[in-house]
Specification:
Layout lengths: L2 E7 L17 E2 L2 E2 H10 L6 E6 L4 H10 L6 E6 L4 H10 L4 E8 L7 H14 L1 E6 L7 E2 L5 E3 L8 E9 H13 L7 H7 L5 E4 L10 H17 L8
Parallel strand pairs: 1-4, 1-6, 4-5, 7-11
Antiparallel strand pairs: 2-3, 6-10, 7-10, 8-9
Helix pairs in contact: 3-5, 5-6
C-alpha cells in the first residue's frame, strides 16, 4: 500500500501583505505562519511524508529556521517551485515516491484541523478527488460589465473551496501533466481533474481554515490561535 503524502505550497510572496519577506515567515503570536501549517500535518498519524515547495530565495531560510529549528522529521524534501502555482504543484508531485494519496495544501492556511486532514484522506480513497470548503456566509452577487447587480445565486448552492485538496496520486499527476502539455491555466487543483472529466467530492471544511493574505488576516489568525490554545486540554505551549 502506498503512502499518504502532503505537498505544502510555500512559494508565494504575498504582495497584498505589504511585507518585505515571504508572508509565511511572518509571525502569528510567537511563531511563523508556516510553522503552524507544517506542525498540524506532521502530528497527523495518517500522514507519512511532507514535501515543501518554496522559492529558491527562501529555501535556506525555510530549511534552517523552520524545518530544522522545530525538528519536523516528516518533511522529506524542500524543493523549488515554478512560475505559477500549478507548476509548483507539479514539481511537488514529481518529488514524491510510492505515494497513494496526496494532499495539496496552501502553506498560508495554518489552522487546518486534524479532522479535515483525516476526512480528506478517506474521501480521496473513496472518490479519487475531493476538496474541503464552506458555504459562504455572505450573500453573493453576480456583477455585470457596468458594475450593476446581474443576479443573486442561491447561497446554499455555493461553496467556498479551501485546501487541502486531496487526490489519488496517479490521477492528479496525470492531470497536471496534461494541463501542462495542453497549456491550460487552472487556479486550483480540482480544476485540473475536472478539466478531464473527473468529479470532485466536496466535504465540510472550517471557517477557521482561513488563508493568510492581508495584514488583517494576521489579526484574525491571532484570535483563532488563542481560541485554539484555550480549548486544548493539555499544556502544549508549542501551538
Amino acid at each position: 500500500m502506498g503512502k499518504n503524502c502532503a505537498i505544502i505550497l510555500a512559494a508565494g510572496k504575498g504582495k497584498r501583505m505589504g511585507a518585505d519577506k515571504n508572508k509565511l515567515f511572518l509571525h502569528i503570536v510567537d511563531k511563523p505562519v508556516l510553522y503552524y501549517t507544517i506542525k498540524t500535518f506532521s502530528e497527523n498519524n495518517n500522514i507519512d511524508e511532507i514535501v515543501i515547495v518554496t522559492s529558491i530565495d527562501d529555501m535556506e531560510y525555510c530549511q534552517k529556521e523552520i524545518i530544522d529549528k522545530f525538528s519536523f522529521k516528516k518533511v522529506r524534501k524542500v524543493i523549488v517551485g515554478g512560475l505559477e502555482r500549478q507548476d509548483s504543484v507539479l514539481q511537488g508531485l514529481l518529488a514524491l515516491t510510492e505515494c497513494e494519496i496526496v494532499l495539496i495544501h496552501d502553506g498560508a492556511r495554518p489552522f487546518v484541523s486534524q479532522k479535515i486532514i483525516n476526512e480528506g484522506i478517506e474521501n480521496a480513497k473513496q472518490f479519487k478527488a475531493c476538496a474541503c470548503g464552506v458555504i459562504p456566509k455572505d450573500t453573493i452577487k453576480i456583477i455585470d460589465e457596468n458594475k450593476f447587480s446581474a443576479g443573486t445565486p442561491d447561497r446554499s448552492g455555493l461553496f467556498c473551496v479551501q485546501t487541502p485538496q486531496c487526490f489519488d496520486y496517479e490521477l492528479i499527476l496525470e492531470c497536471h501533466k496534461r494541463i501542462k502539455k495542453d497549456n491550460i491555466i487552472v487556479t486550483d487543483d480540482t480544476m485540473a481533474v475536472e478539466r478531464y472529466g473527473h468529479k470532485v467530492y466536496l466535504f465540510e471544511g472550517s471557517y477557521n481554515n482561513i488563508k493568510i493574505t492581508t495584514p488583517e488576516d494576521l489579526i484574525v489568525g491571532e484570535n483563532i490561535l488563542m481560541a485554539m490554545r484555550n480549548q486544548l486540554s493539555t499544556n502544549d505551549n508549542n501551538f
